[in-house]
Design brief:
Number of domains: 3
Largest sheet: 8 strands, parallel, barrel
Structural class: alpha/beta
Distance between the termini: 58 Å
Shape: elongated
Strand content: 15-25%
Oligomer: single chain
Low-confidence stretches: none
CATH topology of the largest domain: TIM Barrel
């Protein structure tokens, strides 16, 4: 749809109104992508492109590109006289596909530089670094999904996420280049549907200069990476997934950005987007710049970016990376390397303000999306509403559960009895936040090994350990996330320069893992007791968490109508005639058993189910005499409550 420039109050062509400028400077403008950047327009009867960039400490800004042979000074931008620091111009004859940068001359240090457009919708394919004039026109076909998103994203709905790095999922047709956005759409959809996941989460698809950062060093906060196609190609991928009933979550990084010269760093010769003081503006772990959360214009930039991906790419949620690094001024810093807040504390008050504003703004406009915090500390009320003092997220990654249980699982079963609390401690805090249980990309890189190879023992025990772990995860309160490769029992750790080893699925043990995850997802999606009370302590009850000697746990999940019993044996020794107390009489059907032959197990079990006996045990009036196979998770369901 064509837009036209109008004359502003000083008789100059502009997309900015006085209200836009006020909201920008106040930090509450949520749609800056409609004003800043490049936009094809009609002005005075001429088609062309309007450009606007924020550079308050520049003395001169010119547009360079393939339309003027990259010559400085030929197409000058004018500085608005309202104190906003916004430079703008309209150039007729420039349209979609034109390459450009801003040549910025700073008022400080005789500094000049060529910068990409922070609001560009499209960039050249890396390692080239020019911005590209582009539009966002696309005819969506996901109306049915959007109308049902409220139900699909509810906290009382099943949410099981398949996390994927698009570039290393599988190769394209030539066997070397990754799949494009359009090529991956039918393949990914089929795979995710077959395994029963409800959502896909993409590692950051925003433009980034260094492929090895996996997208976490973002330079284009309003542009999908051109490595896999155009903006419309990514829209097609998301649209395709939606039409197949699959939600889409995008990783988003408001915590830091790379220092590449053409990017945001020292944009106008000053620390414009970042802090000047390295104790606040430089991240020691990632060697990158930290946003200046005290600057209101930065608030508007980041909030607009979040809104952009939800509005124009129909994202069903954002996973916000490295929230802990935003909350704490001393994150990864020693004494003397950080600056306390105005009260002398370590809390980053400006970042807290941003996160609360961000979540409030997003949920006001898009109440049915998910805002998911990767937050690894004990910061309180991350998922509680802003109006009661929380940060306002809808979910938080349960990093404590992940680290404790993976440490437990990597321990030889002989010694697990001494670490039983690692397995059970998570329930003490399981309902303090609205948690998501992640087995993410971070756990299968940098020498940590694949999930399968974290497990001790010979090959059979590794697979059995992995199955019992996954069974416990799916029965445990909280939404679920698995990184790609887990579903096939990937043996080597993830390598972003390679691809998943799809040939593993030709072998029975790996097929068994895939079938186990498929059936876990199916059970999770179809049994309300396993998802509707993920955040309600009334839906969980321990039967026995104290049998450390045998490394066995048993617990109940309930939605008030149905009752699910999970029992896990974390040793390779089968337990015959093992008694478990239950609250009701009746027939308890064995609905899932990780030791079944189809999953690669020994085939031991309980012949389809057990009738409860009127024998008190574990403080319950009835009990079951069960067989617990080695390294096994068994799930029972009471036929009638």
């Amino acid at each position: 749809m064509e837009r036209s420039l109008s004359e502003d109050g000083i008789g100059k062509a502009s997309l900015f109104s006085d209200l836009d400028v006020f909201l920008f400077r106040e930090g509450t403008h949520c749609n800056l992508f409609e004003k800043l950047g490049s936009h094809e327009l009609v002005h005075s009867g001429s088609k062309g492109t309007y450009f606007a960039v924020w550079a308050p400490n520049a003395v001169e800004v010119s547009l360079i590109g393939d339309f003027n042979q990259w010559k400085q000074g030929e197409n000058m931008l004018s500085l608005r006289n309202d104190g906003s620091g916004i430079w703008e111009c309209f150039i007729p004859g420039i349209g979609k596909g034109s390459l450009y940068k801003y040549h910025i001359c700073s008022r400080y240090h005789n500094y000049s530089v060529d910068k990409g457009d922070p609001f560009s919708f499209f960039w050249e394919v890396s390692p080239r670094t020019a911005s590209v004039v582009w539009d966002l026109e696309y005819e969506w076909g996901d109306e049915d999904w959007i109308s049902r998103r409220e139900v699909m994203n509810l906290s009382t709905s099943p949410i099981s996420i398949y996390e994927i790095h698009l570039g290393s999922w599988r190769p394209g047709g030539n066997g070397s280049d990754p799949l494009t956005y359009r090529e991956i759409a039918p393949l990914l959809s089929e795979h995710v549907k077959k395994l029963g996941f409800t959502h896909v989460e993409f590692l950051p698809l925003m433009e980034h200069p260094f492929y090895g950062s996996w997208g976490y060093q973002t330079v284009g906060y309003f542009a999908p990476t051109s490595r896999y196609g155009t903006p419309q190609d990514l829209m097609y991928l998301i649209d395709y997934l939606h039409q197949k009933g699959i939600g889409v979550i995008l990783d988003w990084v408001p915590s830091h950005f790379p220092s590449d010269e053409y990017g945001l760093a020292r944009f106008d010769g000053t620390a414009l987007f970042e802090h000047e003081d390295p104790r606040q503006g430089f991240h020691p772990d990632w060697k990158s710049s930290i946003f200046n959360y005290g600057r209101k214009e930065v608030h508007a930039f980041l909030i607009s970016s979040a809104m952009f991906w939800i509005e124009h790419y129909h994202a069903d949620g954002l996973r916000i990376d490295a929230v802990a690094s935003m909350l704490y001024l001393d994150y990864s810093r020693e004494e003397g390397q950080w600056i306390p807040n105005r009260y002398g504390g370590r809390e980053n008050l400006d970042a807290i303000d941003l996160l609360r504003k961000l979540n409030t703004a997003v949920f006001e406009r898009f109440p049915h999306v998910q805002m998911i915090a990767e937050e690894s500390t004990s910061w309180p009320m991350v998922t509680r509403p802003v109006h009661v003092g929380g940060l306002g997220f809808s979910m938080k990654w349960n990093m404590g559960w992940m680290h404790d249980v993976l440490e437990y699982m990597s321990t030889d079963p002989i010694f697990r009895k001494y670490h039983h609390d690692k397995l059970t401690f998570s329930i003490w805090y399981a309902f303090s936040e609205d948690f998501l249980l992640p087995v993410s990309h971070d756990e299968v890189v940098h020498g940590k090994g694949s999930l399968l190879n974290k497990m001790p023992g010979d090959t059979w025990r590794k697979f059995a350990n992995m199955r019992v772990f996954l069974g416990y995860m799916y029965a445990h309160p909280g939404k679920k996330l698995l990184f790609m490769g887990v579903e096939m029992g990937q043996m080597s750790e993830w390598n972003h320069d390679g691809y998943l080893h799809w040939d593993l699925l030709d072998h029975l043990p790996h097929q068994g893992v895939s079938l186990w995850i498929r059936d876990l997802n199916s059970l999770y999606r179809n049994e309300r007791a396993l998802y509707s009370t993920d955040y309600d302590p009334k839906g969980f009850e321990w039967i026995d968490f104290g049998d450390a000697e045998k490394s066995i746990i048993a617990f109940l999940r309930s939605d008030g109508k149905s009752l699910i019993l999970t029992a896990c044996n974390f040793t390779p020794e089968p337990r015959y005639e093992y008694r478990i107390g239950v609250p009701y009489s009746g027939y308890w059907s064995e609905i899932l058993n990780s030791d079944s032959h189809i999953y690669g197990g020994t085939g031991h079990g309980n012949f389809g189910g057990i009738e409860a006996e009127k024998i008190q045990h574990h403080g319950r009036p009835f009990s079951l005499m069960v067989t617990l196979p080695p390294l096994c998770c068994i799930i029972f369901k009471l036929s009638e409550v």
